[in-house]
Design goal:
The chain is built from 5 helices and no strands. It is mostly helical and 123 residues long. The protein binds zinc ion (ZN). Residues 82, 84-85, 87, 95-96, 98-99 line the site of zinc ion.
């Protein structure tokens, strides 16, 4: 979810990239809207309680374009997040610094194993 959105149609199209409408529908119904908002919250690392869930259900009754705007606010406020752990990540990066280091260490281990011909071998 992104934005900012200039029109209702832009917001609706962005919503449908995240949650596709049911067959035969051109808009999301309440269940799809709720999924859209839930994904935005999860992607931002936001934990929800019972009352939050009640409000989500209420909000999901509005149009998909309206829910897309709210989901866009959540995702834009959260900024870019790590695909693995959900912590903040530099803009344009899929990983946070810690996961990037872990990825590099794993890649180095694979190279070491390949070079030595055995698991855990030296380069
Ligand atoms: Zn991470």
């Amino acid at each position: 979810m992104t934005g900012p959105f200039g029109t209702e149609q832009q917001a609706r199209e962005a919503a449908h990239l995240v949650v596709a409408p049911e067959p035969g529908w051109s808009i999301l119904r309440a269940e799809g809207n709720r999924e859209l908002l839930t994904r935005a919250l999860a992607g931002a690392g936001v934990e929800t309680g019972v009352y939050d869930e009640r409000i989500l259900a209420w909000l999901a009754g509005f149009t998909d374009a309206t829910c897309a705007v709210v989901a866009g606010w959540i995702s834009r406020a959260a900024g870019n997040r790590c695909r693995r752990c959900g912590r903040p990540a530099p803009d344009g990066n899929d990983w946070c610094a810690a996961c990037e280091d872990e990825n590099a260490a794993q890649a180095l281990e694979v190279l070491r194993e390949a070079a030595s011909g055995e698991p855990g071998g030296a380069l």
